[in-house]
Amino acid sequence: MKITSLVSDGVLLFNDFGKVIKGVSPIERAIRLNPGESIYLLETGDVLLSAQAGDIKRFVDAGKLSVNDRFLAVGIAGTVDVEHNFGMIPNITVVLDPTGTPIVAVVGTDVTITHDTDYNTTTIENLTGAAADIDVRVG
């Protein structure tokens, strides 16, 4: 899940991602987003709960945050690079909206999805034969 700060000043603080216990010291998983900054989050239970009823939902409802990449215009055979820096193969969902009716893209028919060798960047190529608006979900 990608979250992007929409505020022009101030910092958005997320305090509901829980703790990771390593040995005897819990590590807080709080996140700070500066104006215009984006970050990809692995879709753990804490992150999904925040999106449904926590800090992420509160900031989205207030117009201070956007979630995921939406309505990316991609030309014929055009590509979109998503730099998530996970270091592992992410779960990618692509939704096409070429005619005003969103549909899930079929890999190999509508799009190709490739990753760099370090699994930090994912490239999505439009194979539909027409320009399309796409939504991308990385988790």
Total tally of structural domains: 2
Q: Compute the number of strand runs.
A: 14
Shape call: globular
How much is the radius of gyration in Å? 17 Å
Please tag this protein with its features:
single chain; 139 residues; mainly beta; 2 domains; 4-stranded antiparallel sheet; 3-stranded antiparallel sheet; 2 helices
Protein model, in words:
This protein is mainly β. It is 12% helix and 43% strand. The chain has two helices and 14 strands. The protein is globular.
Short description:
With 139 residues, this protein is mainly beta. It has 2 helices and 14 strands; from the N terminus they run ββββββααββββββββ.
Architecture blueprint of SSEs:
Layout: E1 2-5, E2 12-14, E3 19-22, E4 25-28, E5 31-33, E6 38-40, H1 45-53, H2 55-61, E7 65-67, E8 69-74, E9 79-83, E10 92-96, E11 103-104, E12 111-115, E13 121-126, E14 132-138
Antiparallel strand pairs: 1-6, 1-7, 2-5, 3-4, 8-14, 9-13, 10-11, 10-14, 12-13
Helix pairs in contact: 1-2
